[in-house]
Amino acid sequence: MSPAAGPRTEPLLERLLHVDPHTGALLDATVGELGRFLRAGDLLVVNDGATLPGMLRGVTADGEAIEARLAQSLEDGRFQALLFGAGDARQRTEDRRPPPQLAVGAQVRFGPGLEAVIAEVSSLSSRLVVLVFSAQGAALWEAIYRNGRPVQYAYVPAPLALWDVQTRYASRPICAEMPSAGRPLAWGLLLSLVRRGVRLASLSHAAGLSSTGDPALDARLPLAERFEIPEATVRAVLDTRSRGGRVVAVGTTVTRALEGAAVLGRGTLLAGRGVTELILGAHHAPAVVDGLLTGVHEPSESHFELLSAFAGRDVLRRAHAHAEARGYLTHEFGDSMLLLAA
């Protein structure tokens, strides 16, 4: 299938493939028709994380060019980051040069007011590090927004601006890349769902990087990610389930947060902050989420395996073949799929 070549201006006209995991039935629709598949009493949960301008070009103390992609904020000016060597930021990630070998204590300058020291080098890959920035608080965030850009994609011909990679309800800047399942959800559509009795709730999940350029590290994705679930969202989930409604997650980040929190709570969904290492897949029977709104992805991608928590692989392969035959578009700005029993 072909990837969408960038942001699209009519999100409600984008394609939506409804997949019934139980019967295997497939139905073509548009995003604007999402309400056809949701019932009064259902709960739609979104990730309100905003996308960081986390791609930083810099130079080491030895004068070597380097690029850092902030994977997630930790605390006290510390960020987990992925490093690349010199090159075009819009090259395919797997074609990028590796970074110069840097040890703990190495210094990197990313621009005015944005200097950092490498505090940790991961045992998983020398590309994955923890950066400690000299600036703190508002000064650090100001410097990141002044010097950084959002992650770029080789299949998008035009440079992406920060507003191109935000959902309409984005709030705190915690995402390395856009939680793209929610990208086409326009406010008018969400309001129409509410008028029909569908409830909305939100959580924050630090959506990580989708590719690292290191095959061994890619095989470990997604890495551990931070989340925060408000008490109001937990109440909404529990109330929905008690009334026979369905909990529909907008994206695998929402799914990972809710299911990961339930795992940490030993079967009980608890409010608060946490870090989840849960990897979704056929081995995981969802305890909280009944359905998933997600993008269209190729079977060769790790994201496809995550969907097998909600539908059998045979159903997913048929859905992919159907989408391919009908010209659905893939990747961050592509079309959508709803895995939800009728």
From TrEMBL:
InterPro entries: QueA, QueA_dom1, QueA_dom2, QueA_sf
UniProt KW keywords: Cytoplasm, Queuosine biosynthesis, S-adenosyl-L-methionine, Transferase
Pfam families: Queuosine_synth
SUPFAM superfamilies cross-referenced by the UniProt entry: QueA-like
The UniProt record lists the keyword Transmembrane helix: no
UniProt keyword annotation of S-adenosyl-L-methionine present: yes
GO biological process terms held by the UniProt record: tRNA queuosine(34) biosynthetic process
MF (Gene Ontology): S-adenosylmethionine:tRNA ribosyltransferase-isomerase activity
Protein name: S-adenosylmethionine tRNA ribosyltransferase
Source organism of the structure: Chondromyces crocatus
